[in-house]
Backbone:
């Protein structure tokens, strides 16, 4: 009896990207740039909003190209402790200099 093979389609496993970047981050930076442009209603604010939008879109595309799940990796990294105490393992071979360092 042969094993049954079920193909996993790429369309069912794709990450949610919008304009080449993470969907939520791209839309949020677009909202911030839009609010900056239309709340200030000045030429300088319009330029800053456009520069903010284009730079953030470029950086978010680079981030999604490197890893589409980078946002979740970063958020998990932020939740970790700031300090993990050193823990030895039975496979660690300490040098003489390292042992004398703590006397």
Residues:
């Amino acid at each position: 009896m042969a094993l049954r093979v079920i193909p996993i389609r790429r369309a069912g496993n794709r990450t949610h990207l919008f304009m080449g970047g993470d969907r939520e981050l791209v839309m949020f930076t677009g909202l911030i740039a839009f609010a900056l442009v239309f709340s200030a209603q000045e030429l300088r604010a319009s330029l800053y909003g456009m520069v903010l939008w284009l730079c953030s879109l470029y950086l978010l595309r680079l981030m999604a190209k490197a890893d589409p799940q980078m946002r979740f990796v970063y958020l998990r990294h932020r939740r970790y402790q700031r300090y993990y105490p050193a823990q030895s393992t039975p496979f660690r071979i300490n040098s003489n200099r390292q042992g004398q360092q703590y006397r």
Notes: The mean pLDDT is 85. Residues 16-79 form one domain.
